[in-house]
Input
Amino acid sequence: VQLQAFGGGLVQAGGSLRLSCAASGRTFSRYVMSWFRQAPGKQREWVAAVTSGGSIDYARSVEDRFTISRHNARNTMDLQMNSLQPKDTAVYYCAEGRSSRFLYSTTLYGHWGQGTQVTVSS
Output
């Protein structure tokens, strides 16, 4: 499967962005899908996940501000980001896990999108 993430940009603190991830090559409906992010000089960190069954989990740093959703019929996944803060500035990646259940480590994801830059100004 090939993943492509898009929708990033520059936004002021308190603003919103919606990221999307489109998959091609085959369906991703059987696998957990996640968003990760990587800020300059930091390790890539898990942000949010949605399992094949539709269960959702968020990192504590984004819960109540971000909303993940997947649309298996369209082979797409979104991340609605509200109340953005400068600390959310990072390159955001979508990824497909090697299982249908929640996975939190980057090593358990076999397919990655190319990343989309999100910059939040103060």
Q: What stands out?
A: The longest strand covers residues 17-24.
